[in-house]
Specification:
Layout: E1 20-25, E2 49-52, E3 56-61, E4 64-69, E5 78-82, E6 98-108, E7 119-124, E8 139-147, E9 153-158, E10 174-175, E11 178-185, E12 191-194, E13 200-203, E14 207-212, E15 215-222, E16 232-237, E17 244-255, E18 263-273, E19 276-286, E20 289-297, E21 303-310, E22 319-325, E23 332-341, E24 346-348, E25 352-355, E26 363-369, E27 372-379, E28 383-391, E29 396-404, E30 407-414, E31 422-429, E32 434-440
Antiparallel strand pairs: 1-17, 2-5, 3-4, 4-17, 5-16, 6-11, 6-17, 7-8, 7-16, 8-9, 9-10, 11-14, 12-13, 14-15, 18-19, 19-22, 20-21, 20-23, 23-24, 23-25, 26-27, 27-30, 28-29, 28-31, 31-32
């Protein structure tokens, strides 16, 4: 994990520090498990299902949710689920793209025989209510709890239902009651968050970090199925022989960017087409989106607005957008997309780089206003030029002596023009060559 990540080419979307609560429960309001379950209309403190096999019981004890299972039976699966399967109303809303799942966790009475993938935490979509863990195809991210030879101790592991964790996908051993804090990113860009130890940490798209107490136990682990949204949650004991008691408390699931990132951007690309650059981008979902602003730069650090494109607004389907930049700089062009929602909040894409032609004849003139224009020109060597501006009848408006440096030049040139009228800019080189470009003055 990279802390305090800053990069020209990969900009980080900053998260809302408080976020929006999707689920929270400390199991202190009732001693009856059924009071914490509601299938069709759960509150943000209720599961949609609690399913147990014959050898597993669920209870509320000392203000904690307790799973108890027996040694002798292999029918030992049990779970709690918050889901949106048919008939269940537990989908997280609005759809989150960066979530923080936190819970107090204790395991005890496990004996001396280690159990691999003893229990799992899963987040995904349409997760079934069965006692056992959900199949990988409906799970965006998942981690497992493994018990060890020391009763009450455990490790955490990146795992799937078919492939248990191994090597660096398994953490060191932990003991006693621990706070598990899980950050899952499905936003389309790298995100930052405040870690349990108070530092600033980052997590790339479609990966997750898991903290045990103040220890980063698993770092930047890849999602199980990246295309699955973050709409449902499950904790499950796998169907394995072995006694165990699990206590869960102070469970909370928070959407860290629901208010800060209304759009999930899936791609932003640029391609050279003759003398133009075609910019294209796609969104998977949009919520209260107003418009996109395209920023342009010569050096990758100083950006200026190029244009705006109206957004679709609200959608759960993929949408495609495009814009053609008719007068890019000769050489390297940098672009960044800024999404603006209806409340004025913004999020930025990574910066992309597109190469345009770098020949001497590439000359572009962009009117900045009625009293200034931008001259973009590529020079093979340092040389002095005369730059004249005339109206279409040939009357001289301004004449300026300029020095071009070898390579790309972008120069602001003063002029006096009338908005809406056409003008001609002419470069006169010392060898007698001339180049003329017609442009339109604008406000």
């Amino acid at each position: 994990m990279k802390k305090y990540l800053f990069s020209v080419f990969l900009l980080v979307s900053l998260i809302n520090a408080n976020g929006q609560t999707l689920f929270t429960q400390n199991f202190s309001s009732s001693q009856t498990v059924a009071d914490y379950v509601n299938l069709s209309a759960p509150t943000n403190g209720q599961f949609t299902h609690n399913m147990n096999a014959a050898s597993v019981t669920t209870s509320i004890s000392n203000g904690k949710l307790k799973f108890t299972r027996i040694t002798s039976s292999a029918n030992n699966a049990g779970s709690v689920t918050r889901t949106n399967v048919s008939g269940a109303g537990g989908a997280f809303s609005p759809e989150p793209f960066l979530i923080k799942l936190q819970t107090e966790f204790t395991v005890s009475g496990t004996g001396a025989t280690p159990i691999t993938t003893f229990a799992v935490f899963q987040v995904g979509d349409q997760i079934p209510s069965a006692t056992t863990p959900a199949a990988d195809g409906v799970v965006h991210s998942m981690f497992a709890i493994n018990t060890t030879a020391t009763s009450g101790n455990f490790t955490v592991a990146k795992s799937t239902n078919t492939v248990p964790g191994s090597g660096t996908d398994i953490s060191s051993e932990f003991s006693g009651t621990q706070i598990l804090t899980w950050f899952i990113n499905n936003s389309g860009v790298v995100q930052t968050y405040t870690a349990p130890n108070g530092t600033t940490a980052s997590v790339p798209d479609d990966t997750w970090d898991l903290w045990v107490g103040n220890t980063l136990a698993l770092d930047d682990k890849a999602a199980t199925t990246p295309t699955v949204p973050l709409l449902a949650f499950k904790f499950a004991l796998k169907n394995q022989t072995g006694a165990a008691v699990v206590d869960l408390d102070d469970m909370a699931i928070t959407d860290l960017i629901a208010l800060a990132m209304p759009v999930k951007l899936t791609s932003f690309t640029g391609n050279r087409m003759n003398d133009q650059i075609q910019l294209s981008w796609k969104t998977a979902t949009e919520l209260n989106s107003s418009h996109f602003s395209i920023l342009h730069s010569q050096n990758g650090s100083s950006f200026t607005p190029l244009t705006t494109v109206k957004a679709v607004g609200n959608s759960t389907r993929e949408h495609s957008y495009s814009f053609t930049h008719n007068s890019p700089f000769a050489g390297t062009n940098y672009y960044q997309l800024v999404q603006v929602d209806l409340d004025g909040r913004t999020s930025r894409s990574p910066v992309i780089v597109v190469k345009s032609k770098g020949r001497k004849e590439d000359v572009f003139i962009t009117s900045i206003g009625t009293n200034q224009l931008k001259l973009s020109v590529f020079a093979k060597k340092q040389e002095s030029i005369q730059f004249n501006v005339t109206d279409v009848a040939g009357r001289l408006i301004s004449s300026t002596k300029l020095t071009l440096e070898a390579g790309f030049n972008a120069i602001n040139v003063p002029m006096q023009a009338t908005s809406g009228l056409a003008y001609v800019g002419t470069i006169m080189y010392t060898n007698g060559e001339k180049q003329s470009v017609r442009f339109l003055a604008r406000q």
